[in-house]
Amino acid sequence: MEEHRAKPGISLQESIKMGYMSEDGVIAAVEKVGFKLVGKSEINANPQDTKDYPGGVWALPPTLRQGQKDRQRLVAIGESDRMTLKFVKPNR
């Protein structure tokens, strides 16, 4: 599973507004429905993503929701910081 990673402690309302998800929240939700976390990877991590843009994650490439506003700065940041998580469904 790959998802935009929020700063720790983000509220659900802020997550919905900004498009970033709490890693702990994602893990808890997926495990609640019966899957088990078996691995994580930082392959999609981007430490340059400050996660505080007007318009949320969609301000970054490839969407660039703000059009030309701050385009060079946002393109230089690149795509969002993303968590990459591996879950399995245990045999019953």
Question: What descriptors fit this protein?
Answer:
three-stranded antiparallel beta sheet; elongated; 3 helices; 17% strand; 3 strands; 92 residues; 26% helix; single chain; alpha+beta
Number of strands: 3
Low-pLDDT ranges: none
Shape: elongated
Amino-to-carboxy terminus distance: 22 Å
What integer value in Å does the Rg equal?
Answer: 15 Å
Strand fraction equals 15-25%
Describe the protein's architecture and organization.
It contains 3 helices and 3 strands. The chain has 92 residues and is of the alpha+beta class. The protein has one domain (2-88). It is elongated and about 55 Å long. The mean pLDDT is 95.
Tell me the layout of helices and strands.
Elements lengths: L1 E3 L7 H7 L4 H10 L3 E6 L29 H7 L4 E7 L4
Antiparallel strand pairs: 1-3, 2-3
Short structural summary:
By secondary structure, the protein is α+β, with helices and mostly antiparallel strands. Helix content is 26%, strand content 17%.
